[in-house]
Amino acid sequence: MTRVIDVHTHYVPRGWPQLGALATSPWLRVDSEREATIMVGSDEFRRILANCWDADLRLHDMAEDGVDAQVVSPTPVFFSYDRTPTEGVKIAKVFNDLALEICAPAPGKLVPFCQVPLQDPDLACAELDRCLAAGHRGVEIGNHVGDRDLDDAGIVTFLQHCASRGVPVFVHPWDMLASPRLNRWMSRWLTGMPAETHLSVLAMILGGVFDRVPEALKICFAHGGGSFAFWLGRLENAWHGRPDVIGMSEKPPSSYVGRFAVDSVVFDPSALRLLVDVLGGENVLLGSDYPYPLGERPVGQVVRKAQFLTDADRALLLGGNAAKFLSLPTGSRLTG
Predict the structure, then answer these.
(1) Strand 69-74 versus strand 43-49 pairing type
(2) Residue 172 · residue 196 · CB < 8 Å
(3) What's the pLDDT tens digit per position in 320-334?
(4) What is the pLDDT of residue 305?
(5) d(CA 21, CA 31)
(6) Cα 74 to Cα 12, 77, 116, 147, 179, distances in angstroms
(7) Which domains can be identified in the chain, with CATH numbers?
(8) For the chain, percent helix, then strand, then coil, each to nearest 5?
(9) Which of 64, 165, 259, 333 would suit a FRET pair with 217, their CA atoms being 20 to 30 Å apart?
């Protein structure tokens, strides 16, 4: 029977009093026992429900959608990359320990991924190691730190460390640019997130990161890799036509297909088919963006209904690829 593993879900703790003065922004306004609002300063960022922190509610929704396990990752607004490294690691430690508490009721089903102070590679590596020893299975990182993209030397050092430890890395877009044009219609999420993700894949390729990190690096990009699959042909054409200005990769961009995975959160069978055709079915992992309203519910419905997939392909997308990403042996059940 196919195991269904969702690699893209998020959590928010109900409170974190240990942060004290560091909890000024962003912070959580608890509105009731079952509802809260993520605040950035005095501005409302997102209304959330108790399924962000309540394991029983998550497990109920998973059972309803036929999901056997969730990778539970931080909500990116709390990455705190704009803090000093000392503040960043303090915040990461508090959130990472709270993530373990949220996942503790179901160690075989709720799989915690940690966050790290990516603004400081040494502290990031140290916090990753601490979290692995404590029970985290992987790490979620933002797609940039200020103006530093994934080809930044310090971030590459962290990715090399992840590869040496065999740690899966989930890259999530965040901190999208704001402008009068982008502040309408949730456009920062509808256009900014795909663009940020696309840019991050480009940084890995054109910035020569895949030439510098071991092939053992396991890295997955959220939201279907943004628009990368659609525009790979344009990128390939530019690499051959303008090698004087296009990046520092040793090989053409298409040569790096297979070095990274993407999730399936594209909401449409035609878009999913493009991912499978361009990136390969073995490189697409089930994701939902649970529990947020722009996520997919029921989880996996596009994969389950996609007529172009064979039963074997569908099994890979629903769980087989994620099991490999998480280093689970074939036939294994998730255990704590």
Answers:
(1) unpaired
(2) no
(3) 999 999 998 554 444
(4) 94
(5) 21
(6) 7, 9, 10, 21, 26
(7) 5-325 (3.20.20.140)
(8) 45, 15, 40
(9) 333
Residue 121 phi/psi, 5° resolution?
-60, -35
- Burial class of residue 135, CB neighbours in 10 A (0-12, 13-18, 19+): middle
Let me know: does 234 contact 280? Beta carbons within 8 Å: no
Say how far apart CA 323 and CA 336 lie, in whole Å: 14
Give the separation between CA 6 and CA 167, rounded to whole angstroms.
Answer: 17
Point out which residues pair with 172 in neighbouring strands: 142
pLDDT at position 154 is 97
For the question of whether the overall pTM of this predicted structure is more than 0.90, the answer is yes
What is the average pLDDT score of the chain? 90
